[in-house]
Design a protein that fits this description.
The complex is a heterodimer of chains A (73) and B (145).
Chain A lengths: L1 H6 L6 H6 L1 H16 L6 H30 L1
Helix pairs in contact in A: 3-4
Chain B lengths: L1 H14 L3 H5 L3 H22 L1 H4 L6 H7 L3 H14 L15 H31 L16
The chains are: A mainly alpha (73), B mainly alpha (145).
């Protein structure tokens, strides 16, 4: 059962692939803030803030590139 | 022992993410890094399958990134060879599962390895400075930057 978890790929739709960006960005935010912060009591808020910044920033870049593509093509 | 403290902290973190911080007595930081990196790595393997995700022949540079998370990457490579022993000798290994899933899995595992490189460097700096990140300013007032 546990072996099958790692040997069979999960089929993903396009929307699911986009949504899987969220936990990856959360992991990046948590690890970055864990090594940057001296006071770990503020880690959850700091990581959440960075996570929102990354997601909003990447979404803005994605929308910008999509608009540019629509204009040029 | 103090001479070995810095490389030992780095080596322990490479083997198991966060273990170097635990060795330095920074329990919470170590456990947070361990949980985040290990969960990210094995989530990637679960999404893309071990054959499609940890493939040193077809995804060489990604495998180098994955090796940043040493223990996890070597365990996954061992599982890869266990599941599909032919692929270790073959220049073009079979990629199981949907290609999109494998792409997502490769990104998860590669990012986990690169994040662990940051954690390794942080553990080594903290081992050298006695716990603080910044040797010039030990104990920054608010801490979070």
């Amino acid at each position: 059962m546990l072996g099958a978890l790692f040997t069979h790929a999960i089929e993903l739709s396009g929307r699911q692939r986009i949504l899987l960006m969220l936990p990856l960005c959360l992991a990046i935010a948590i690890v970055y803030k864990a090594i940057r912060s001296e006071n770990l009591s503020r880690l959850p808020a700091a990581a959440l803030s960075l996570w929102v910044t990354i997601v909003v920033g990447m979404s803005a870049v994605g929308v910008g590139l999509w608009v540019l593509f629509e204009i040029m093509v | 022992m103090s001479v070995l403290r810095v490389p030992l902290a780095g080596l322990l973190t490479w083997v198991v993410p966060g273990l170097g911080h635990l060795f330095l007595g920074q329990k919470t930081r170590g456990l947070v890094c361990m949980a985040a990196i290990t969960a990210t790595f094995w989530s990637g393997v679960a999404i893309g399958s071990v054959q499609g995700t940890v493939a040193p022949h077809s995804r060489r540079l990604w495998f180098v990134a994955q090796l940043g998370s040493g223990g996890n990457a070597l365990a996954a490579y061992g599982l890869h060879k266990l599941v599909d022993p032919q692929s270790a000798a073959s220049p073009t290994p079979k990629v199981a599962g949907h290609w999109a899933s494998a792409e997502v899995g490769v990104h998860y595992t590669g990012v986990a390895g690169l994040l662990n490189l940051l954690v390794i460097l942080d553990a080594m700096v903290r081992a050298e400075t006695g716990g603080s990140r910044d040797r010039r300013r030990p104990g920054t007032p608010d801490g979070v930057t």
